[in-house]
Amino acid sequence: MTIAPASAPLAPEVAVADRTPPSAGRHVLVGLDRRELADLLVELGEPAARARMRAGQLWHWIYHRGASSFDAMTSLAKDLRARLAETCEVGRPDVSRALESFDGTRKWLLKLPDGEEVESVHIPEEDRGTLCVSSQVGCTLTCRFCHTGTQKLVRNLTAPEIVGQVMVARDTLGEWPSPVGDRLLSNIVMMGMGEPLYNFDNVAKALKIVMDGEGIAISKRRITLSTAGVVPMMQRCGEEIGVNLAVSLHAVRDDIRDVIVPLNKKYPLKDLIAACKAYPGATNARRITFEYVMLKGVNDSPADARALVKLIRGIPAKVNLIPFNAWPGAPYECSSDEAIRAFSDIVFNAGYSSPVRQPRGRDIMAACGQLKSDSVRKRKSERQAALSA
Ligand code: SAH
After folding, report:
1. What is the pLDDT of residue 22?
2. How do the domains of the chain map onto residue ranges?
3. 9, 16, 142, 365: least buried by Cβ within 10 Å?
4. How far, in Å, is the centroid of ligand 1 from the Cα of 369?
């Protein structure tokens, strides 16, 4: 396991093309499902009998070809393109900042129409490329070790804002039309800012758009949704979205989990484990991932590892150990390499895969639990600079 030094060189800021801000009152098409697109076309005067077929064509241009202007949509009649251009925009979030880490990880800071900001991260690996997508601006969960949790929830993201993160990544990576074979963006993890199961409807709608085989076409097998354990929504997540599930377990005893993941007071381990056992579609081929942050002296003993194995017995599971990513003022330290290795060995010897998640993009504050801090800190320093001026 290698950990990027805290003093890693600052990543260069990548130039971002200016975008025209959305004009008020225009319909944004990214984030609409097929039916909404068809309804909109009828509103724009397209005969109802043709609307579904036209919506399919629009869908192809937006989500398969990645067209960002109506001029490019040459299979649509000229007058329809003109009507669309007058009243709609395809729609992308504004990229206010894009950073690239020395390890190839990219982070986008996206500016939303109301001025709020959200981050997404692309992590290239040898056999895949994973986009880490946010579901909320900030987070309400206040997990003690998570920097995002120190910022107040501002709001849920809309479906267009969630799909927009994927569109921006695809634009930057140059992956239009949706490639059939190898992809730079092959996988999605709902592991950015926020708790996705507290924003279920928008997340479900967005992921269904992303999974549609005639558009972005990332299959449910390549999408993982991570929850801190919103037990009442887990069943619906499996049934209605059908993606892989990751659970931020982080502790095997209620007294410890109550402190580090306060949601545990509402949904304790017994209920969480029961919901995992009942998760639709979990099989040995599609295991539930238990995420476990390694906090020195808190949850990282061999006894904890043995208790973990006992707790998840009977669940098709794998365990993902996450070295704690420190942030200024954090009340914890990362476990030693030896403690992490010993913990991983115990879990592995009990028959569970137990990889240690490599921290990626720490130099651009893009690693787990570090999101948003960057933008908030920047805003704060801008405010301070303005004050002293
Ligand atoms: N709210 C969801 C999505 C966040 S996913 C959830 O809790 O699952 C991000 C993962 O990184 C979670 O497992 C989270 O607990 C973990 N994490 C948060 N802060 C971290 C930190 N500072 N170091 C390592 N992992 C962290």
Report:
1. 52
2. 29-89, 93-382
3. 9
4. 5
Identify whether the C-beta of residue 333 lies closer than 8 Å to the C-beta of residue 299.
no
Ligand 1 atom closest to the Cα of residue 228 is: 7
Check pocket membership of 368 for ligand 1, CB cut-off 6 A. yes
H-helix or E-strand spanning residue 78: helix 78-87
Per-residue confidence (pLDDT) for residue 13, from 0 to 100: 40
Provide block-wise average pLDDT over 10 residues at a time, the chain (389 residues).
30 38 76 95 94 96 96 94 95 92 93 90 95 94 88 85 97 95 96 96 98 97 98 97 98 98 98 97 92 98 98 97 91 96 98 91 74 56 51
**Identical topology for domains 29-89 and 93-382:** no
| Ligand 1 centre distance from Cα of residue 210 (Å) | 23
Residue of the CA atom closest to atom 18 of ligand 1: 369
Q: What is the pLDDT of residue 375?
A: 56
Cβ–ligand 1 distance for 334 under 6 Å, the answer no
* Choice from 322, 327, 332 to test ligand 1 binding pocket (greatest atom count within 8 A of CB): 322
- E strand segments, 53-159: 88-89, 94-100, 106-111, 117-124, 129-132, 136-137, 155-156
The CATH class given to the 29-89 domain equals mainly alpha
For a mutational test of ligand 1's pocket, the pick from 1, 130, 134, 145, i.e. the residue with the most ligand atoms closer than 8 A to its C-beta, is 145
The β-bridge relationship of strands 106-111 and 94-100 is: antiparallel
What's the rounded Cα separation, in Å, for the pair 136 and 65? 27
Is 119 part of the annotated catalytic residue set?
yes
CA of 180 to the centre of ligand 1 (A): 32
Which string of b and e fits 354-381 if b means at least 16 CB within 10 Å? bebbebbbbbbbbbbbbbbbbbeeeeee
Marked catalytic residue, from 100, 119, 195, 291: 119
| pTM over cut 0.85 | yes
Name the CATH architecture for the domain at 93-382.
Alpha-Beta Barrel (3.20)
What would the two tokens of residue 109 be? 């800071």
